C-alpha cells in the first residue's frame, strides 16, 4: 500500500510529505523513530548530561536518529553528517542546534578522487565513478538494491561528494573530545574508522552498524576499545578501555 501511494508522487514531494508527517508525530506525541529503540538503550548505558556526539548517516535528523533523544532529553549537541542533499535540507531545518555537514564521504585519508552517493534513501551508499561500491565490509549490495527497487526507496541518482576524514572534519570544527560516535554508513565503517587519529581524538563510546562484526571487533581491539553489547540486528557498542 505504501509503495502504491509513493508512486502517486514525485520522489522529492514524497520525501517532504514523509518528513512533515514524522515532524508532526514528534512534536505532538514525542515519538522517536530510532530502530530497536537503541537510542533509549544507549542513554541508559551512557548516563551523562551535556555530552558531545558525532552521528554519521544522520538522514533527516528525526527518522532513525540515534542522537535526537540525547539532544532533547540530555542537552547534548555535536556534528551531524548527511551526504544526501535532499535529506540534508530537512536535517538542517530540524537540528539547527547542531553542526550539520553535507556532501562528504569519510574515508581513511583525504584523497582527490571522484566518489558519489547512490541515493537509496536511508540505504544510500558511496560508489566510485564506475558505479562500484567505494569501500565495503561484506555489505549486501545486491540485496539492498533489490529491496530499494521493490519499495521504491530513493531515486538511484548519483550525487558527487567530497572525500575527507573524521580527524580533518573534527579539526575544522575544533572538536577533540566525543562522548559518543554513531556510525551508520552502509558497509564502509572500517574505512571511516581508519580515518580517525586516535592519538588526537578522544572518543568514549562508539555505536556502529556493521555487517561483519568479527572484522570490526578486531579493528576496535587494536585501538583499545572493548565490545560491550549488541543493541539491534547489526548495531554494536564499544567503549574505550581506560
Written description of the protein model:
With 242 residues, the chain is an alpha/beta fold. It starts with a helix and ends with a strand. The radius of gyration is 17 Å and the shape is globular. The chain has 9 helices and 11 strands. The strands form 2 sheets. A 7-stranded mixed beta sheet has the order 3-2-1-8-9-11-10, with helices on both faces. Strands 4-7-5-6 form a 4-stranded mixed beta sheet. Strand 5 (115-118) and strand 6 (125-128) form a beta hairpin.
Topology:
Blueprint: H1 2-6, H2 11-29, H3 38-45, E1 52-56, H4 68-74, E2 77-81, H5 85-94, E3 99-101, E4 104-106, E5 115-118, E6 125-128, H6 141-151, E7 158-164, H7 166-172, E8 177-183, H8 189-193, E9 202-209, H9 213-222, E10 225-230, E11 235-240
Parallel strand pairs: 1-2, 1-8, 2-3, 4-7, 8-9
Antiparallel strand pairs: 5-6, 5-7, 9-11, 10-11
Short summary of the structure?
This protein has one domain (2-240): Rossmann fold (3-Layer(aba) Sandwich), CATH 3.40.50.150. The protein is built from 9 helices and 11 strands.
Can you tag this structure with a few keywords?
Rossmann fold; single chain; four-stranded mixed β-sheet; 242 residues; 9 helices; alpha/beta
Question: Any low-confidence stretches, pLDDT <50, length ≥5?
Answer: none
The CATH superfamily label reads Vaccinia Virus protein VP39
Q: Tell me which CATH architecture applies here.
A: 3-Layer(aba) Sandwich
Count the domains: 1
